[in-house]
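Listing S7. Sequence submitted for prediction.
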Amino acid sequence: MDSSDPSISFNSEGLCDYCQNFDTQIKPNWHTDAQGLAELAALSERIKSQGQGKDFDCIIGLSGGLDSSYTAYIAKEKMGLRPLLFHVDAGWNTDQAVGNIEKLVDGLGLDLYTEVINWEEMKALQLSFLKSQIADQDLPQDAAFFSALYKFARKHRIKYVITGGNFSTECCREPEEWGGYPGIDKTLFNDIHKQFGKRKLKSFPLLDIFTYKVLYQKFLGMKVVKPLNLVPYIKQDAEAKLEQLFGWKKFQHKHHESRFTRFYEDYWMPRKFGYEKRRAHFSSLIMTGQMTREVALERISKPEMDEQFLKSEFEYVANKLGLSVDELQQIFDGQNKTYRDYKNKRFLIGIGSRVMSALGLERRLFR
C-alpha cells in the first residue's frame, strides 16, 4: 500500500495502519487451528439442526472464483452441509468461470440455481455509473450479486448465507477512494441512475444495505457466516486442491471470473484514477505470509494483462454496452468524480461500520 490511499498513516517503526490493524485486530482473533475447527463443527451442527426437514440448510453465492468455490467445497465436504449453490449471471461471466461452476456442481453433487439479470437493465445501470465518472464502477455488479442472493434466501426462508469472505486473501480492504464503497446504497444508485439512466429498473434486484444488514439479519434472523476464517486457507493450496478434485482452473488474478471486473480493475481503475487494487490484494497475501513484498512489487510494476489484450477488452466492453470505442474513450477521458458528488447515505453507513468494528463484528480496517 502507498499514498494513493490518501488516509494511510505510519507509526514510528514505519508500519502502516493496515499492518498495525492486522497485528492487533485480525491476527489475535483469527483461529484456524483446533479452536477454529471446534468452532466450525459447532457452526455445522447449528446449520444442520435448523435446516432439518428442508431441501437445503444453507445457500452459497458461487461466482466460479477461488473464494466462493473453496467455500462450497468446505461446506459440503468438511461441514457436511446441504447447500444450494446460487449464481447470478450479470452478463459478464468468463468461459473459465462458467466451466468452474459446472465442474463444482458435478463434482460436489449439489444443486445450482442461476438468476439471470435483465441485460438491458444491467447495461443501463452500468452506463449510468460510467457516465457518473466515479471510481466505484463495480457497484452495479456487486449490487446484482448480493441483492439477488439475499432476496432469494429471504423469500425461500433459508436462514444461513455462507460467503467466501475471509482474512487470508482479503484482510487488507481497499479504501473507498479506490472504489471500495462500503455496501449497497440505494440513495446513491437512485441519484446516479436518475441523472444518467434512460431505462427504468423494473426487475433489477437492488437491496439497500440497511435492509439486509438490519432488517434481514437483526430482525428476521438471517445469518451470514464465513467458514474460510475457521480453516487453514492458503490460496495456492486451495487452487491445487480444487484442480485435483474437480478439474477447476485457477485465474491469473483475483476477480478475473468477471470480464467487466477484470477490465475495470486492470485497465479502467489504474489508468483513469491511478488506483491499483492489486496493492490491496497483494498486501493481504504479504501479511498472511503467502507472498513476499519483492514478488508483489515486481508483479505490480507492469499490467496484469498485456497491452494488446487490454485494447481488445476495451473494444469488447464498449460494444457490449452499446457504445462505440470513441464514446467509451470520451467517458474515460471525462473529469473524475467521487460518490460525494451524488446523493448518498455514506455518513449513516459509516456509523454502522464503526459500531460493527467496536463490537468486533468487523476486524478489517474500513475507511
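Caption to Listing S7: primary sequence and predicted C-alpha cells for the chain studied. The two ends are 14 Å apart (CA to CA). Residues 17-358 form a domain with the Rossmann fold fold (CATH 3.40.50.620).
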